[in-house]
Write a structure and sequence with these properties.
41% of the residues lie in helices and 12% in strands. The chain is α/β, with parallel strands linked by helices. β13, α16 and β14 form a beta-alpha-beta unit. Bound molecules: FE3-S4 cluster.
Length: 427
């Protein structure tokens, strides 16, 4: 049984309204199933109320009203018809489409309208429409030690590892319930001893680029599974983009929710601190042959070198990546037979327009998109058969989700493929 504080008991008794009561009931069941003994307060929740994934579209007609559907899908109950405002700072992660470019994405008008309705309800609930899988890039940056309740595996691993904030990888229902209550079960990565490293990975292959860090993260996820990998021996200063791609990759090949980089990330200033004095469960080496294995695995579905789709921006591109892509595309032309889509957080679109990046990208024949991505929205250019990407995560999922061939490499490889229509990337 969980120990409940007075405010939690009152929520459970319905003193804060029926919807909050239902949300609290859900969290208590969830916490007890996990073995949590208490809740912690959170003032930072990222989840989704979006109903634009293909799976959810099929059942829209089963509900009496939009709030009724939201209650069933987000709070796992069927008797909340009036969803109140959230109780703490809450953000919507990515949607299933970009309302500005949905027609290019091949999305129907009816799905666009569902998205608009979702946003209307979220605004009424006071959920911030940040609409990105990387909220830490644009407006929601937690601090060290802050208890959060976030969905989205790549964002979870980033804020745990790089910032030292604390979150488990929440689900749609638990995140929504946390929005209405400001509570999340105190278990998993909220508890300091659970944040210690499990597996040591000695890094002997020099990881210098986003591509290399993606390969390292992919290896870490494979080696450590759902446990915490500790990368040892990193030379040089890793950048935000390196960590972003490393975490997203680890959450794809394994269940990485946190990693440590000895001497770099905040809870691993030393090996001693990373492991808390415990012995690693196992020690691995990431050398050239391991990096090569990961690279080959990510390129295993490519049957030809002809590329007709280039996808950049998974996780959504940072401002620096957007700037780099614009500079690399300046004066170039994407081949007529290739569609090039670049995904960024909505908030960076304004910056991009103002800096002239959008014009450079569009003049080159590429399209800037926000709010979603191919893997999440199940979207791709009509007739696409072979995608090139600089993202391990996208390269991992797209062949399975959309049946496309996939080639993974550096951003330069991808831009070259966009211009020539051919994949020339090499390890
Ligand atoms: Fe984001 Fe989609 Fe990648 S939601 S992390 S761009 S799979």
């Amino acid at each position: 049984m969980m120990r409940l504080k007075q405010d939690e008991i009152e929520m459970l008794e319905g003193k804060q309204g029926h919807a909050v009561q239902r949300a609290m009931e859900l969290l208590v069941k969830y916490g007890e199933a996990l073995g949590a003994e208490e809740f912690c307060d959170t003032a930072n929740v990222c989840g989704t109320m979006s109903n634009t994934t293909p799976f959810l579209n099929k059942i829209l007609s089963d509900f009496k009203s939009y709030d009724h559907m939201m209650s069933e899908l987000n709070f796992d109950c069927s008797d909340v018809y009036d969803i109140p405002e959230v109780r703490c700072f809450s953000c919507q992660l990515e949607h299933g489409l970009d309302p500005d470019t949905y027609q290019i994405q091949g999305i129907s008008q009816s799905k666009y309208e569902i998205n608009a309705k979702d946003e209307e309800v979220e605004k009424r609930m006071n959920v911030n429409l940040i609409c990105t899988c990387a909220p830490y890039l644009t407006g929601n940056v937690p601090v060290f030690g802050e208890h959060c309740a976030w969905m989205e595996s790549s964002a979870v691993v980033y804020i745990n590892s790089v910032i030292g904030a604390r979150t488990n990888c929440e689900g749609r229902e638990s995140a929504a319930a946390s929005m209405l209550t400001g509570k999340t079960p105190y278990w998993g990565l909220h508890v300091p001893e659970n944040r210690l490293g499990d597996y040591q990975i000695n890094v002997e292959y020099p990881v210098e680029s986003v591509r290399d860090w993606g390969l390292l993260g992919y290896y870490g996820g494979w080696a450590a599974g759902e446990k915490i990998p500790v990368f040892n021996g990193i030379q040089g200063q890793p950048l935000l983009e390196h960590y972003k791609h490393c975490g997203a990759a680890g959450a794809s090949s394994g269940g990485t929710e946190m990693f440590h980089v000895v001497g770099r990330t905040p809870e691993a200033r030393t090996m001693q601190e990373a492991f808390g004095g415990r012995k690693p469960k196992e020690v691995f080496t990431f050398g050239r042959s391991e990096a090569r294995q990961m690279y080959d695995r990510l390129n295993s579905t490519a049957k030809s070198d002809e590329v007709d789709f280039v996808m950049l921006g998974c996780p959504h591109y940072s401002l620096k990546q957007l700037w780099q892509a614009a500079m690399k595309l300046r004066g170039k032309k994407v081949k007529d037979s290739v569609a090039m889509w670049i995904f960024i957080p909505r908030a960076l679109k304004e910056v991009s327009d103002r800096n002239g990046y959008t014009k450079i990208i569009e003049d080159a024949g590429a399209v800037l998109m926000a709010d979603t991505c191919p893997a999440l929205g199940r979207l791709m250019p009509q007739g696409a058969t072979h995608m090139a990407t600089d993202s391990v995560k996208q390269g991992h999922y797209i062949p399975a989700i959309l049946g496309l061939q996939s080639s993974f490499g550096s951003v330069d490889d991808c831009i070259e493929a966009a211009v020539s229509g051919r994949w020339k990337g090499e390890f």
